[in-house]
């Protein structure tokens, strides 16, 4: 598939296109939009045309236009001397161009005046976005409330609270936030100003691992339109969408990875639409990050939104972070733009997706063997499974639900007390799991169940299996199962 990137106005920023002409339409094979010099352009830019009858066979001197292009080409090289200096908050021109092209390839927002800006990662970008979009309750302020999934990324919750911004959790199912529940919350809102911002993690949500399918995304977007809610789409796990779990397929899959590597088109097409790609109103700010697919320590990501919003974001960044580190940008730009190009980056993401699929399947296999056999022994729950989970379709988290009602002390101890007991037992046995209650959007509401978050992000396969064994033993002990 040849991909045409229409010329884009980058808001007056020199976006460092290496063919030296930002206004040229760039049409390059596959996804590689960054290495954009056609042989003709290269010859023209370098001024090395062969001789002709008019100049007696001697090489022609470059024309003024050719010289200008050559100068521009030189200027557009991002190097250490530039990266060491102060720069614009929007980010280095070359990397800004690359993320803008990437966004166009993946989301292609359906309106003209969208923009990107580099960020210091999604956490910092989210803090800025909250400050831009909400008024806290400090000094008699309104005390806006944002909506989010009922279990949400703990750092996001802790970012909102000190700003005096309230958080209201929307009930979820296996596919994440429930649009009907969100509609009902907004329709029946009586507690001050109705929320105007939704913070959502649509793919491989942290902590539940839930992934919104296309239909779910469209329904949520429709509810946001109905109630005029602005969407912050936080998508660090977007490219970690995985195929279904196959119990028998762990080792085979690893062997097939090379084959899958070839199929970037199918990979990109298999991804659900981003909110940005559905955004007819300019009501979405998307947060992308290099943290989960490249280098967390780069502290680098980007926002995409309408020009108006990005403008405000930048004014804020100028007196806040002053934009991302030049050294980080240099390293990432050399890799993703100059070395890989878009094709290579997508190939890397596909490889990463395959690696995570293998890890996820190892963890799921261990859960099936160690936890799947545990049954509720109390009269009400009968012989039901004690621990349940949904196979994550994206991301790096597995969310385990333990039936607290089947606990022998359920009538005398709260969910949080039993959760703490199991958590401590896990530590004693040498495995760390995260307690579900840590992720509650609204701690004043009762917990809807007892959950533990596990991850297949970093441990070895051997340690994951060991970890689940230990977690299973902690559950057995707590529930006094033989
Ligand atoms: C949902 C979510 N958003 C953002 C982040 C962090 O992103 P960054 O490293 O870009 O700040 C994480 C990391 O755990 C996350 O789970």
UniProtKB/TrEMBL annotation:
Entry keyword set? Aminotransferase, Pyridoxal phosphate, Transferase
Record's keyword annotation contains Transferase: yes
Q: Where is the composition biased (Low complexity)?
A: 34-54
Q: What is this protein called?
A: Pyridoxal phosphate-dependent transferase
GO MF annotation list: 2-aminoadipate transaminase activity; aromatic-amino-acid transaminase activity; pyridoxal phosphate binding
According to the record, the residues making up region (Disordered) are 32-69
Co-factor(s): pyridoxal 5'-phosphate
Q: Which protein family is it in?
A: Belongs to the class-I pyridoxal-phosphate-dependent aminotransferase family.
Q: Has keyword Transferase?
A: yes
Per UniProt, residues of the Aminotransferase class I/classII large domain are 118-471
GO biological-process terms attached to the record: aromatic amino acid family catabolic process; lysine biosynthetic process via aminoadipic acid; tyrosine biosynthetic process
The scientific name of the source species is: Microdochium trichocladiopsis
Which Pfam families does this chain map to? Answer: Aminotran_1_2
Cross-referenced InterPro entries? Aminotransferase_I/II_large, Class-I_PLP-dep_aminotransf, PyrdxlP-dep_Trfase, PyrdxlP-dep_Trfase_major
């Amino acid at each position: 598939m040849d991909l045409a990137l229409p010329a884009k106005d980058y808001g007056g920023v020199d976006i460092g296109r290496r063919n030296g002409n930002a206004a040229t339409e760039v049409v390059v094979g596959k996804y590689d939009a960054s290495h954009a010099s056609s042989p003709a352009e290269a010859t023209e830019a370098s001024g090395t045309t062969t001789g002709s009858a008019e100049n007696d066979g001697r090489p022609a001197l470059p024309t003024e236009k050719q010289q200008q292009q050559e100068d521009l080409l030189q200027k557009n090289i991002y190097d250490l001397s530039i990266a060491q200096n102060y720069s614009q908050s929007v980010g280095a021109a070359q990397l800004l161009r690359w993320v803008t092209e990437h966004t166009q390839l993946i989301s292609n927002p359906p309106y003209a005046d969208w923009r990107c800006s580099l960020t210091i990662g999604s956490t910092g970008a989210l803090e800025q976005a909250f400050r831009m979009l909400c008024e806290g309750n400090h000094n008699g302020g309104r005390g806006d409330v944002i909506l989010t999934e009922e279990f949400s990324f703990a750092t996001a919750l802790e970012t909102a609270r000190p700003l005096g911004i309230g958080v209201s959790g929307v009930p979820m199912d296996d596919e994440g936030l429930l649009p009907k529940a969100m509609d009902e919350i907004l329709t029946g809102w009586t507690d001050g100003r109705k929320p105007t911002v939704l913070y959502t993690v649509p793919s491989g949500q942290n902590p539940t691992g839930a992934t919104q399918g296309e239909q779910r995304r469209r329904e949520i977007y429709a509810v946001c339109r109905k109630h005029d809610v602005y969407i912050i789409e936080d998508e660090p796990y977007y490219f970690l969408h995985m195929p279904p779990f196959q119990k028998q397929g762990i080792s085979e899959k690893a062997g097939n990875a090379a084959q899958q590597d070839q199929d970037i088109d199918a990979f990109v097409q298999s991804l659900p639409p981003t909110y940005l790609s559905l955004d007819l109103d300019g009501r979405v700010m998307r947060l992308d990050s290099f943290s989960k697919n490249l280098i967390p320590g780069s502290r680098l990501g980007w926002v995409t939104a309408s020009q108006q919003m990005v403008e405000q974001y930048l004014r804020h960044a100028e007196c806040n972070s002053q934009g991302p580190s030049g050294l980080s940008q240099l390293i990432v730009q050399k890799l993703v733009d100059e070395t890989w190009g878009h094709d290579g980056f997508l190939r890397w993401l596909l490889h990463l997706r395959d690696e995570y699929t293998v890890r996820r399947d190892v963890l799921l296999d261990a859960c099936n063997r160690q936890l799947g056999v545990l049954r509720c022994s109390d009269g009400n729950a009968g012989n039901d499974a004690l621990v349940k989970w949904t196979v994550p379709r994206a991301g790096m988290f597995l969310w385990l639900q333990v039936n607290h009602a089947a606990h022998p002390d359920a009538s005398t101890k709260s969910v949080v007390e039993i959760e703490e007991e199991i958590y401590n037992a896990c530590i004693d046995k040498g495995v760390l799991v995260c307690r579900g209650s840590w992720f509650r959007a609204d701690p004043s509401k009762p917990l809807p169940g007892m959950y533990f978050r596990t991850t297949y992000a970093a441990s070895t396969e051997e340690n994951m299996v060991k970890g689940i064994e230990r977690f299973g033993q902690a559950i057995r002990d707590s529930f006094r199962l033989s």
